[in-house]
Amino acid sequence: MTSSAHMADTAGKAAGTPPASLRDIVSCLSDYDPNALTVAKGQQVIMQFVQPVTATEQVAIRSALDRVLAVDIQSAINVPAHDNSAMDGYAFHGDELQADAELTLRVVGNVQAGDRHQGAVAPGECVRIMTGAVMPADCDTVVPQELTQIVGGNPALPQITMGAACVRRGDNRRLAGEDLHIGQAALRSGKILRPADLGLLASLGIAEVTVRRRLRVAFFSTGNELRSVGQVLEPGCVYDSNRYTLYGMLTRLGCDVIDMGVVQDDPAALEAALRSACENADAVITSGGVSVGTADYTKQSMAALGEVLFWKIGMRPGRPMAFGSLASHGKRALLFGLPGNPVAVMISFYFFVRNALLQMAGAEHAPLPRLRVPSLSPIRKRPGRTEYQRGIVAPDQHGNYCVKLTGAQGSGILRSMSDANCIIVLDDSSGDVQAGDMVDVVLFEGLI
Question: Looking at residues 372-390, what average pLDDT do you find?
Fold first, then answer.
């Protein structure tokens, strides 16, 4: 089934109109300093400025995986619809149980899942029942078959016996509406739909859901020295890796990506690329060109098209960063200008861009969860800045999880990220780490 547009939409306008300009936001922060900005303060400014998309579409639930739910889902039915058995066994009156005596019951029926027992179940009687089958009206308890024995020699009148106190009244019965009852909120707007959510929707008989449209993100790298994969690598040039890591991270977030390639260090080319990106996307990500350098024309091009702040953030790697909004021919887009070093691009994305894009997409989001584990080795750390080290979390010989560095931590060593399964986060107030000290780690698994 193809999806259909649910609301009118125009590319580049989905970010909405911010409640205030960037400068209005930062003017309210008494300790704001663009040349010495903390990680937390930069994150605060970004999240205050970002607005979610409003356009939605209707999709079949098979197409809804990893999409952002746009409306609350309320259950129109009870799930399960009837009291039913949680076990293969025998349904009977729970008030017949005696704490100190065996109980013998005559089997008067057999009910499979999807069927129901039509007759009455009198005291001293029970019904053979399968998991999921509707409970007989007179029964409230199920004894698992493995806790019973068949007694008597007449197959036409089978009897079972169970030991004293093997079950309690009400055991092994699922109540109608136990999972969801009529009118109960099943899923909230903003939830990123996962496999269990698709099953939950199906259990309610829902075939289609309203989701936010996918976020469109354009990205490109800047630099005369960069070559794309497949091009000849001249002396002094390097292959551009940043667009490929950005493609992977954006795709995991469920964005529609627009790869604009490599843009040369030329003011006209940069401005043209920024205009095109702004007119076709909700957000624009650049890598390179935001540090101080004689060929860094990106700043002036960004400033010419919108309101952009240039920051020196107290972090390593990834100190230079630009953030703001662009406007071109009536279209608007948010801008994230990231540093050029490969590791710095990934760190900046995970700790600044990721949550902003989730907020733009209308998705629930929260700071990345951290685990506390001991470090296997000392780590040098300068107080006053947040440092992100690449690490490997693994169990030691006793099964206790610890973390170790991947090796050299230079911001250009992309292999250190490839080898890692986590980021060690050392906050700005912390200093050197000794072997055995507890540190915070953010696992790569689960980063979407």
Answer: 94
